[in-house]
What we know:
The chain is an alpha+beta fold. The protein has helices at residues 14-38, 42-48, 61-69, 84-91, 100-111, 177-183; strands at residues 77-82, 112-113, 128-131, 137-142, 148-150, 153-162, 165-170. Helix 3 (61-69) packs across helix 5 (100-111). The longest helix is centred in the first third of the chain and has 25 residues, at 14-38.
Amino acid sequence: MRRRKSEGFKLKNPVKFVCIIVSVSFIIIQIISAIQLRNISQSTIASKFPKINLSRDSKIGKFGENVMKMLPEDLKFTLFLPSERAFHRDLRLNQNDSNAYAVLTRVLGFSAVPRWISTADLENGKEMVYDSISGYNLYVSKDLNEMVVVNGVVSEKVDLKMGNILVHVMDGVIMDAEFELSVQPDDDEDE
């Protein structure tokens, strides 16, 4: 005679059953967490990461403001920002230049470091090497006047904290040789 199969659920392997229960519970928790994450108000996020009020920080200039707007506000950066005069003098950049955004993006790549580097972190005359966000080596030191020197360019203002960004205003533009050649005037223009 044949045995009759039981009609109800028979637990053959309790380990598999526990694994299934744990997996289903984990998925439910993930779904609930995702729903709760959506419910966080934007004001809560804004209070943790205050906006930078660039209009009152005119000491960095219009080009400086544009470069700062390119950085995320919720991460710490040090920005070796060229002064407004350096943008005009070294890059011949004007506000209505069609290529201004591309130039400012390159400047950002050479002059931003994803960490804070204050004058207190530097020893007089001792050079430290940091990588910019584009991978360009920055040789940073502090001179006897407590000014930051980066790749031979001396700062005008130091340790300006703007949100999570620490700014040193430089009297020049930090750039590699290739970019420097690309922004130099053509010799044909003088003739």
